[in-house]
Amino acid sequence: MYSFEQTPPETRGLLKVQIKDLGLKLEGSMLEKYIAQLYRELAEKGIAPHSTEWNRETEQVLQRQREAMRPRLFPDIPPARYICFYPMDRRRGEEKNWYTLPIEERQRQMEEHGMVGRRYAGTVRQIITGSIGFDDWEWGVDLFADDPLVFKRLIYEMRFDEVSAVYALFGTFYVGVRCPVSGLGKLLSGELPTLQ
Fold first, then answer.
1. What pTM was computed for the model?
2. Of 86, 120, 156, 167, catalytic
3. Buried b / exposed e across 4-24, counting CB within 10 Å, b at 16+?
4. Does 156 participate in catalysis according to the annotation?
């Protein structure tokens, strides 16, 4: 554990001033320990807070994080012919509550769940869309494939893993064929347009 007293005196004073300026009461909190650790590590490297080097290193970290998050925030839509969408939640009932399980148990169950999904890699592509705070469901699952029957096989197989069987709540499943806007007229007249 790291304590505030381990922060170099010159950095400790600056840290206290900045915390006071923010009007925060951080003393003894985990956030204080994190901030103090960060300042200590930068001080050990000889990097002064808010110097050009500090700002450059901070921007490099932020840029790496932006690049890592980009595919999750702005995913490329796969060129598959069929799409399946369904909303999901995790149970929060009195008897079964996903969020009261220890994190290690949740990780174990999600790993088991993921092993089923990995067997469909290359056949099905998924994009998970979060909706916590926007809707009644926690997230939406978008599946893409060139064969719509693969959705049925995948979902059927996954319903038997523990995380799905015990803790998942599913909304309505929608399966559709994808078509470009230019093919919408054909689709509405009963023809199945090509994807391109």
1. 0.66
2. 86
3. beebeeebbebbeeebeeeee
4. no
